[in-house]
Amino acid sequence: MLDHEYTTKEVFRKNFFNDWRKEMAVEEREVIKSLDKCDFTEIHRYFVDKAAARKVLSREEKQKLKEEAEKLQQEFGYCILDGHQEKIGNFKIEPPGLFRGRGDHPKMGMLKRRITPEDVVINCSRDSKIPEPPAGHQWKEVRSDNTVTWLAAWTESVQNSIKYIMLNPCSKLKGETAWQKFETARRLRGFVDEIRSQYRADWKSREMKTRQRAVALYFIDKLALRAGNEKEDGEAADTVGCCSLRVEHVQLHPEADGCQHVVEFDFLGKDCIRYYNRVPVEKPVYKNLQLFMENKDPRDDLFDRLTVSWDGPAKPRNYRDHFPPQTTSLNKHLQELMDGLTAKVFRTYNASITLQEQLRALTRAEDSIAAKILSY
Fold it and tell me: Of 147, 166, 185, which residue is a domain's last?
């Protein structure tokens, strides 16, 4: 990875060295004490040469590799679902490597450990032939759960997140899910004007929670922000969405860039990617934000009435049943406005409408198919 700028980042280097030291033999640990004094150019050159050798293979050798890949695809790349052969998406497990993450992820550089069959849960029907594990190994578990769409699952070592082997996006199941998503967004078109009128009226509500929900919904609609949710304790990356914004993530400018009532956003969004935006907002939204930020510390929640914190000695196990996270209460409100509506649907709806408007602006009915595809 010497070619990547990741290896110049202090967090990456520190995390890598910490994990590498855990893998070292005792003698190595006594000798290797500073990453700055280590020279990886020889091993790096080996992989560069290997990549270069692949590029200059003869046509016959390339064809042979292609046939081997196709053979693997035929053996492992398909499953039978409801009597039909369906293509599997990612049937290869990622090899060990260094975690990169996106943006400035706090765990970049950590070692992703090798996954063994003992880590993998297989999910198939009871009457099917269970795949054989590699010789000398056994699966962690074999189950028959027809309420989920994954075929195998394991937990990766860096973020302890569960990874899945799923069906290919062109499969019937995936296609139906995508179709339903866009159909829900299409239905929103018939309700969106009413919903927008409702949240505008709610900006003047006597109840603070209703006002906060209305302003959050305005941002989810206008800026296509992700809704955001409470983090479980101990999650390292400090990423937020609209409902979990803190006072420190927002600055108010009475005037900026020639516009009035400008809100400046600066926070880490999904995958630790920075979201920075300056946007003029309607005056009632600006006034409400001033109200929400009054007498609060920078680390306090902006939409504190949408957020629930537990003040007792320990959270009971059913804490979430009594105190739903922010997006659950927001989505419950949206369900009352339209069946199947969630905060996420606004992103799909606004993206689809934007695409449609651009296509209308850039194409003409008499254009050739090639010209229309170019516009697209």
Answer: 166
Cα–Cα distance for residue pair 206/214, rounded to 1 Å: 12
Q: Is residue 370 part of a domain?
A: no
341 with 236, same domain: the answer is yes
Cβ atoms of residues 106 and 237 within 8 Å: yes
**Model confidence over 156-214: pLDDT tens digits?**
999 898 999 999 988 888 888 889 999 999 999 999 999 999 999 999 999 999 999 99
Give pTM, 2 decimals. Answer: 0.69
What residue has token string 């795949």? 131
Among left, alpha and beta (phi > 0; psi -120 to 50; other), residue 136 is left
Would you say residue 374 lies in a domain? no
Q: Which residues contact 168 (CB under 8 A, 6 or more apart)?
A: 86, 87, 88, 89, 174
CATH (domain of 246): 3.90.15.10
How many angstroms separate the Cα of 264 from the Cα of each of 133, 227, 248, 291, 350?
Answer: 54, 18, 11, 16, 21
Print the domain residue range for 187.
174-362
Alpha-carbon span 287 to 6, nearest angstrom: 42
